[in-house]
Design brief:
Layout lengths: L4 H19 L14 H25 L9 E3 L6 E4 L2 E4 L28 H4 L8 E5 L3 H12 L3 E5 L7
Parallel strand pairs: 4-5
Antiparallel strand pairs: 1-2, 2-3
Helix pairs in contact: 1-2, 1-4
C-alpha cells in the first residue's frame, strides 16, 4: 500500500492522463500548453496513501485486532506463540505481516551503486528527473520506465542479457 501497488497506480493513472493529453489533437481537440507539476501529484498521492493507512488501521482497531510492531518470530512453545522484541504473545490466530526491504549492494560490490535507488525511492522523488535509467526487465521496471518517460523524463531501460558461449 505504501510504496507499491497503490502509489504506483496513482502514478500510472497520471501517465495515462499525460498520454491522453498527448493524443488530443488526433481526436480534434485543440489544447493550449499543458504543464505538469510533479510536486502536486506527489503531495496528493502521499496524502491519499496516508488516508488509506488511517482507514486500514481504524478498521483493524474496530475489529478488536491488536497490532504489535517490532521484530517478531515464532517460538517453539506448544501453543501458537510469537516473540516480538523479547515479549511473547499467544493467540489462536497469528499473522506476521513481514513487509519487505530490498538489499542494496555496496559500492565495492557494484561501483556507483550509491548513485541508484530502489523502486521504493521512486516515491520519494521531489521532482521528475530530467533523465532516468531503470535497471531490470520485470513488470515493475517496465511500468516505472513507462511512467517516467510518459511524464517527460528521458528514460532508458537496462536489461541483462546472458551471452551464449
Amino acid at each position: 500500500v505504501n510504496v507499491g501497488c497503490v502509489p504506483k497506480k496513482v502514478m500510472w493513472n497520471t501517465a495515462v492522463h499525460a498520454e491522453f493529453i498527448h493524443d488530443h489533437a488526433d481526436y480534434g481537440f485543440e489544447t493550449p500548453a499543458v504543464n505538469f507539476n510533479w510536486r502536486t501529484i506527489k503531495e496528493k498521492r502521499d496524502a491519499y496513501v496516508r488516508r488509506l493507512n488511517d482507514i486500514y488501521e481504524n478498521n483493524v482497531k474496530k475489529a478488536r485486532i491488536d497490532i504489535i510492531r517490532g521484530y517478531g518470530k515464532f517460538t517453539t512453545d506448544p501453543e501458537p506463540t510469537i516473540e516480538v522484541d523479547g515479549k511473547k504473545y499467544t493467540a489462536p490466530h497469528i499473522l506476521i505481516a513481514t513487509g519487505g526491504r530490498p538489499t542494496i549492494p555496496s559500492n565495492s560490490e557494484i561501483p556507483g551503486a550509491n548513485l541508484g535507488m530502489t523502486s521504493d525511492g521512486f516515491f520519494d522523488l521531489e521532482e521528475l528527473p530530467r533523465h532516468s535509467v531503470v535497471v531490470g526487465a520485470g513488470y515493475i521496471a517496465v511500468e516505472m520506465v513507462g511512467i517516467l518517460s510518459t511524464l517527460g523524463s528521458k528514460s532508458s531501460l537496462l536489461i541483462r542479457h546472458d551471452k551464449v558461449v
